[in-house]
């Protein structure tokens, strides 16, 4: 079972980014993927998926 996660979207709605479980799920080897949610409302660039990856890498 895979989990699609949108940390930036979750951050703006209800969960502090640093408390988002994506990094720990990824390090545990769970099947997770980054996705976008409401890219025109939440993200700051024209490339919302690249933005999600950039934030996740930092």
Architecture overview:
Its cofactor is Zn(2+). This is AMP deaminase. GO terms for molecular function: AMP deaminase activity; metal ion binding. Pathway: Purine metabolism; IMP biosynthesis via salvage pathway; IMP from AMP: step 1/1. It is a single chain. The longest helix is centred in the last third of the chain and has 10 residues, at 48-57. The mean pLDDT is 76. The chain is mainly α and 58 residues long. It has four helices and two strands, in the order βααβαα. The chain has helices at 7-13, 22-27, 39-42, 48-57, and strands at 3-5, 32-34. It has one domain (3-57).
Summarize the main sheet. Answer: 2 strands, parallel
Radius of gyration: 11 Å
Secondary-structure element sequence? EHHEHH
- How much of the sequence is in beta strands? 5-15%
With strands numbered from the N-terminus, the spatial order across the biggest sheet is: 1-2
Structural class: mainly alpha
**Number of DSSP strands?**
2
User: Helix coverage percent of residues?
Assistant: 40-55%
Low-pLDDT ranges = none
Morphology? globular
Count of discrete structural domains: 1
Mean pLDDT: 76
Helix run count: 4
> Between the first and last Cα atoms, what is the distance in angstroms?
26 Å
EC number: 3.5.4.6
Pathway: Purine metabolism; IMP biosynthesis via salvage pathway; IMP from AMP: step 1/1
Family: Belongs to the metallo-dependent hydrolases superfamily. Adenosine and AMP deaminases family.
GO cellular component, one term: cytosol
């Amino acid at each position: 079972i895979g989990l699609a996660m949108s940390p930036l979207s979750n951050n703006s709605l209800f969960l502090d980014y640093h408390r988002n479980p994506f990094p720990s799920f990824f390090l545990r080897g769970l099947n997770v993927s980054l996705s976008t949610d409401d890219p025109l409302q939440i993200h700051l660039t024209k490339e919302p998926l690249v933005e999600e990856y950039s934030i996740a890498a930092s």
